[in-house]
Please model this.
Amino acid sequence: MTTIKDVARLAGVSTATVSHVLNNTRFVRDQTRTRVLLAIEELGYRPNIVAKSLRSRKTGTVGLIFCDLKSPFFSDLFQGIETFLGKKGFDLLVTNTGYDIKKEREACELFFSKQVDGIILVPGKDTGEHVKFLVERNFPLVLLDKELRSLRVDVVLVNNFQGSKSAVEYMVSLGHRKIAIISGPQDTSTGRHRLEGYYQAMKESGIPVDSNLVKIADFLEEGGHQAVCELLDTIDPPTAIYACNSPMAMGALRAFQERSVRIGKDVGFVVFDDLPWFRFVDPPLTAVAQPSFTLGETAAQLLTSSILKKHKKPKKIVLDVELQVRRSAWKEGLEYNHKGISIPNIY
Model:
């Protein structure tokens, strides 16, 4: 078995120099570095990862815990994380909990026992009891997309309140007054903040909120489908429906199709979360776009900073969202107030 001493002997350098080349821990002249790399290639040397981790107390792995990897939004988050950490030389361990807190707790315990260098967690619900043991040990942990009120840890999320408020204000500007919302669970920060944004927009617009138009669903497709069916079955259905994430929006689209309801004509429709194919349906869907790739990338950057002890106090990073105005928010028969509204001429 080839050892680091064999590489050093062939390259004509010390074992310390080989180590510095492998770990980029000290400047090594280009000529010397080249000799070491050629020796490594010729001998087929592979560093002993276990021994290296014992010396450095680092395993070069990061645990990623997602609540719903089936969602396109979370897939984009993953790409941002994977791209950044890959460049930094980290391997990834990934698991999906399906919004199950028990699975979330087990995943945290498993990754901790495997001695990962840090964890990025997309929590399913607003409870932090199962991850307190990580915080108490000053273990590198970053919350992504949702925050946990009981924990002071690093967190990266978007401005859910302002994004939701802007979406509702836009619908109001188009003449809508009976605006329904399909909100996410209120035991999640995203669900609460998006609903709060809806309430604030309605309040500032002087429109009383009809409790029958507020549906609390589960952030999943079936929840969105059921909520829209209930809304359409009312005696006085809403003129516009606002779905608070893309899986619930897909359930809503299925309900519209089943009942031959025409978006942009029979009902206005807006989504919090913008997917690439939203531009290509008829009509294209107005949506609140989240910088999902950047969210993941930022969380990965924050975690590596924590692993390297570059910051001690917990950081909260909030990224802006942007309303992508298309054609789905309209409804025939309403008197639109176009002042200050950009109306796209193309699909």
In short: The chain has three domains: 4-47, 58-159+292-322, 160-289. The chain is about 40% helix and 15% strand.
